[in-house]
Design goal:
The structure is a homodimer of 174-residue chains. Chain A is an alpha+beta fold and 174 residues long. Helices cover 45% and strands 16% of the residues of chain A. A two-stranded antiparallel ribbon of chain A has the order 1-2. In chain A, strands 3-4 form a two-stranded antiparallel sheet. In chain A, α2 crosses α5. β5 of chain A pairs antiparallel with β5 of chain B, so a sheet runs across the interface.
């Protein structure tokens, strides 16, 4: 079977990974999110080549995840800042970070903690249900065919269709 | 500056990306999470080479994210299932998916929707504060040096230390 490019897969996980591009990109977003917004500073922090960094920043701007804000005209220099779309993607980083805190370092040894400015407390980002507000346990969440799946036609593998039909019929614990 | 390998960076985002390994791995986890649990079915769905898939599944088992459950002895064949650690990582996929639903397909055209079995409704996974329960807006979350940062010593770039000190002093909106 021919490999489907990520940017053509009819799957929101694959398409988000396609925007992220490769492993450096989430770390570029992390830097921008903590206020390391200039090319040279990001480059020094990550130790990535200037060529690769320029490509990654350009792709994130093209995707509308970052925008450039000039801070100097001659030569032109920019701060990179998150757009609304990019701020939303920063949520993914919060959840990635929470996982690494728990499973790699242990929460008692987290390198970075998060303060929620609206309540002033150190927060652990928690995934909850938009309907009932309860914490979402992945085993309690059943994926079902959504409104856009029919549009995908033959781009969706029969394994996926079968798995979703099985889940719809018997539920996650069936 | 020499590039620091991801598995040595003192950052939970980088270390989680290191476990994920490369872009195929999140899609392997996605397949297992929706019940595509056997080697041949995952391979057909993703169209990835058998060699690459065997490496990725082996690495996820080594990391304790997946475990093998035999369903046939001769020749030995396995279902791959999420461990507790892997179920936690599936939360990252829920947030990735929500981002792609919103920004790539549009929520009205989401390929897959999620039913929360405890309330029976279609849910949109929402990131909330573990302290006050409010929805976390990334701009309201300030990263601060955590208990484990001192252990990292010179492995932490001065740009990161300076950015965290700036945020601690003036807050996210400073």
């Amino acid at each position: 079977m021919a490999r489907t490019p990520f940017d053509q897969m009819h799957c929101s996980v694959a398409r988000t990974l396609d925007v992220l591009g490769e492993w450096w990109t989430p770390l570029v977003l992390r830097d921008v999110a903590i206020g390391i917004t200039r090319f040279d500073a990001i480059q020094r922090d990550l130790g990535v080549s200037r060529k690769v960094l320029a490509q990654r920043l350009g792709a994130l701007v093209d995707h509308g995840v970052l925008r450039r804000v000039p801070y100097q005209d001659n030569p032109p220099r920019y701060d990179y800042v998150l757009t609304e779309k990019g701020g939303d993607l920063a949520r993914v980083l919060l959840v990635l970070q929470a996982w690494g805190d728990k499973w790699v370092f242990g929460e008692e040894q987290a390198p970075v903690v998060m303060r929620h400015e609206r309540c002033g407390q150190t927060t652990r980002p928690t995934l909850t249900c938009s309907c009932c507000g309860e914490e979402l346990q992945p085993q309690d969440v059943t994926p079902l065919a959504g409104p856009g799946l029919a549009d995908a036609g033959e781009d969706v593998a029969p394994e996926v269709v079968a798995a979703l039909e099985r889940l719809a019929a018997v539920g996650r614990r069936g």
